[in-house]
Amino acid sequence: MSEGTLYDTVWDAHRVTTLPNGQDQLFVGLHLIHEVTSPQAFSMLNERGMEVARPDLTLGTVDHIVPTDDRSRPYADDAAEEMMQALEANAEDAGIDLLDPTTGNQGIVHVVGPEQGLTQPGKTIVCGDSHTATHGAFGALAFGIGTSQIRDVLATGTIAMDKKAVRKVEVTGELGVAVTAKDVILEIIRRLGTDGGVGYVYEYAGEAIEALDMAGRMSLCNMSIEGGARAGYVNPDETTYEWLKTTEYFTENPDEFDRLRPYWESIRSNADAEYDDVITIDGGELEPVVTWGTTPEQGVGITEPIPKPTALQEDKQARARDAQTHIGVEPGETMEGYAVDVAFLGSCTNARLPDIRRAARVVEGKHVHEDVRALVVPGSQRVSAAAEAEGLRDVFVNAGFEWREPGCSMCLAMNDDQLVGDEVCASSSNRNFVGRQGSSSGRTVLMNPSMVAGAAITGEVTDVRDLSTDDDTVGSQPGVSA
Amino acid sequence: MSDSVAVPSVTDVSGTGLPLRGNDIDTDQIIPARFLKVVTFDGLGQFAFFDQRYDEKDNPTDHPMNQPQYENATVLVVNSNFGCGSSREHAPQALMRWGIDAIIGESFAEIFAGNCLSLGIPTVTASAEAIVALQDWVEAHPTGDISVDIEEETISYGESTAIDATVDEGQRKALVEGIWDTTALMQSNQQAIETTASELPYIGGGKS
Ligand code: SF4
């Protein structure tokens, strides 16, 4: 078993006891809730006549079903309105802060937690959503949980969990132009498979990871779950502290910052920590990665040929054949030139300010291809406002993009933002499963935000490095927070 | 906070059977995604296997769940890899609310079995042949009782048929000892919870 890692240290600090069923009971430092998975848990709590134990450590937002265009109440979709009202009532009854659209702080749950300064190193963070792994970017232990577990957390402020093994995923070197954290994680999943992380938590390390800004670290940790890992994290460092310092919570409580910093430093994995497994990837070799199939592991470098199913592991061949039929691609070709109908820049993986900035640099002065419907759905109202203040909204709107209100949108198509028929979507989201974007014949190609921008402009999957030959800033990682 | 809930131990389940044949039945079939847009699990029972139970014109099919002889069944008998796919807890919730108390099958998807356990529903496995024989028997005797003994790991039915079954060890312990409800288990550790919280530097006044 691992020893001396951040995972071990933070786990031990939160361990209340070992339960008779063999699991550890952990104290939960931050519980994030949203409208889709929480109402049933509140009902269960009511059935038992119990109250929310730690409303002070719980924060709500609305993201999955919220419309991204007309947000006047009641929402046009009755089911969405009902879910919103349930969340409002539950939050009000329990005394839980709710970041609804009137607050100016609403957004996707994994964007707003960090933005509010509540996602901090050394916390345990849970949410009824598998992409909770995102918060590991700050050196928190963050887990997606099921509805009965949400009830557990609401009722007791604690959660029952099995301890996992720790795999160190080391990415060495320096990432090339237009190669981002999204490409790194797609590459990790491509190499290890969507079940490669089962039984593990991932610690991301190495120069290429340390050089990432917080938005990049969030994109990386976000997709740990697509790689099968229960969670992923990056050890906190100066980049983390600098980011935290700028949040409202710590600008208002500067003493807290000074008081907590030693704790944050104390939880970093020891230099001689023991891991259950270590893998190393040369970050300098990577190029932008896009998917050619219907699972996130079916990815390929933009200039590389799509593999023959027979060249893959035996148990992956049938699925690869089905995927290539569904997507309509041939092995031996590259993904470059594959026509797209929709460009979606959004989701908790890639809808933060640096993502939008990077995409804007590609879009600036150009126009969306006439056959493409292109959408920017900022991750939160704050991201949206900041982007607007920098003039980025105008860049996109002038280029022919729709600029929407924040929410999950076409990432899972629970609102009206959906693919129609067999449309192809160049998407900055995290799942390319059949039907994920709202149409069972729809096709999703996952890629980084500037690649989505490139596809919107040319109407096909494009190596964005060719689009911006004299602008080597496309792939850079501005060290900014938002 | 209320007094802790008494968690019943589940040592045995008996009732009439519902045979549902087919391997790899996924949670999307058990409860289609469009029924997730709800605020409570309460009404989910009627949507269990909805797309299998109703055709495109909403006419009932001959799915076993539509047949009157199985109306009061509580023991679901399935084949292999039941409950694979998305981790939605809505799936076991829908089955439970339809009336299912226990599921017997050749094998179950891991997350699905875990979700069942959090509801106190045992997922008991037996050999492929034994399952098929049981499904045949249920079809011939829809009013006959099946008894599942979790502790002894046996399934008995009819005049005198008893078959060996397997219940995952952690699951068996949790069910038999009545420790499958983690809320109840954890609630009793109030003092230790407070001690742990008080030692965490970031837990303090207000939202931290
Ligand atoms: S943006 Fe997508 S992945 Fe993220 S929380 Fe919303 S639905 Fe889930």
UniProtKB/TrEMBL annotation, chain A:
<dbReference type="InterPro" id="IPR036008">
    <property type="entry name" value="Aconitase_4Fe-4S_dom"/>
</dbReference>
<protein>
    <recommendedName>
        <fullName>3-isopropylmalate dehydratase</fullName>
        <ecNumber>4.2.1.33</ecNumber>
    </recommendedName>
</protein>
<dbReference type="GO" id="GO:0046872">
    <property type="term" value="F:metal ion binding"/>
</dbReference>
<keyword id="KW-0411">Iron-sulfur</keyword>
<keyword id="KW-0432">Leucine biosynthesis</keyword>
<keyword id="KW-0004">4Fe-4S</keyword>
<dbReference type="GO" id="GO:0009098">
    <property type="term" value="P:L-leucine biosynthetic process"/>
</dbReference>
<dbReference type="GO" id="GO:0051539">
    <property type="term" value="F:4 iron, 4 sulfur cluster binding"/>
</dbReference>
<keyword id="KW-0100">Branched-chain amino acid biosynthesis</keyword>
<keyword id="KW-0028">Amino-acid biosynthesis</keyword>
<dbReference type="InterPro" id="IPR015931">
    <property type="entry name" value="Acnase/IPM_dHydase_lsu_aba_1/3"/>
</dbReference>
<keyword id="KW-0456">Lyase</keyword>
<dbReference type="GO" id="GO:0003861">
    <property type="term" value="F:3-isopropylmalate dehydratase activity"/>
</dbReference>
<comment type="function">
    <text>Catalyzes the isomerization between 2-isopropylmalate and 3-isopropylmalate, via the formation of 2-isopropylmaleate.</text>
</comment>
<keyword id="KW-0408">Iron</keyword>
<dbReference type="InterPro" id="IPR050067">
    <property type="entry name" value="IPM_dehydratase_rel_enz"/>
</dbReference>
<dbReference type="InterPro" id="IPR001030">
    <property type="entry name" value="Acoase/IPM_deHydtase_lsu_aba"/>
</dbReference>
<keyword id="KW-0479">Metal-binding</keyword>
<dbReference type="InterPro" id="IPR033941">
    <property type="entry name" value="IPMI_cat"/>
</dbReference>
<dbReference type="InterPro" id="IPR004430">
    <property type="entry name" value="3-IsopropMal_deHydase_lsu"/>
</dbReference>
<feature type="domain" description="Aconitase/3-isopropylmalate dehydratase large subunit alpha/beta/alpha">
    <location>
        <begin position="9"/>
        <end position="459"/>
    </location>
</feature>
<dbReference type="Pfam" id="PF00330">
    <property type="entry name" value="Aconitase"/>
</dbReference>
Automatic annotation (TrEMBL), chain B:
<dbReference type="GO" id="GO:0003861">
    <property type="term" value="F:3-isopropylmalate dehydratase activity"/>
</dbReference>
<dbReference type="InterPro" id="IPR033940">
    <property type="entry name" value="IPMI_Swivel"/>
</dbReference>
<comment type="similarity">
    <text>Belongs to the LeuD family. LeuD type 1 subfamily.</text>
</comment>
<dbReference type="Pfam" id="PF00694">
    <property type="entry name" value="Aconitase_C"/>
</dbReference>
<keyword id="KW-0100">Branched-chain amino acid biosynthesis</keyword>
<keyword id="KW-0028">Amino-acid biosynthesis</keyword>
<dbReference type="InterPro" id="IPR000573">
    <property type="entry name" value="AconitaseA/IPMdHydase_ssu_swvl"/>
</dbReference>
<protein>
    <recommendedName>
        <fullName>3-isopropylmalate dehydratase</fullName>
        <ecNumber>4.2.1.33</ecNumber>
    </recommendedName>
</protein>
<comment type="subunit">
    <text>Heterodimer of LeuC and LeuD.</text>
</comment>
<comment type="pathway">
    <text>Amino-acid biosynthesis; L-leucine biosynthesis; L-leucine from 3-methyl-2-oxobutanoate: step 2/4.</text>
</comment>
<comment type="function">
    <text>Catalyzes the isomerization between 2-isopropylmalate and 3-isopropylmalate, via the formation of 2-isopropylmaleate.</text>
</comment>
<comment type="similarity">
    <text>Belongs to the LeuD family. LeuD type 2 subfamily.</text>
</comment>
<dbReference type="InterPro" id="IPR004431">
    <property type="entry name" value="3-IsopropMal_deHydase_ssu"/>
</dbReference>
<dbReference type="InterPro" id="IPR015928">
    <property type="entry name" value="Aconitase/3IPM_dehydase_swvl"/>
</dbReference>
<keyword id="KW-0456">Lyase</keyword>
<dbReference type="InterPro" id="IPR050075">
    <property type="entry name" value="LeuD"/>
</dbReference>
<dbReference type="GO" id="GO:0009098">
    <property type="term" value="P:L-leucine biosynthetic process"/>
</dbReference>
<feature type="domain" description="Aconitase A/isopropylmalate dehydratase small subunit swivel">
    <location>
        <begin position="10"/>
        <end position="126"/>
    </location>
</feature>
<keyword id="KW-0432">Leucine biosynthesis</keyword>
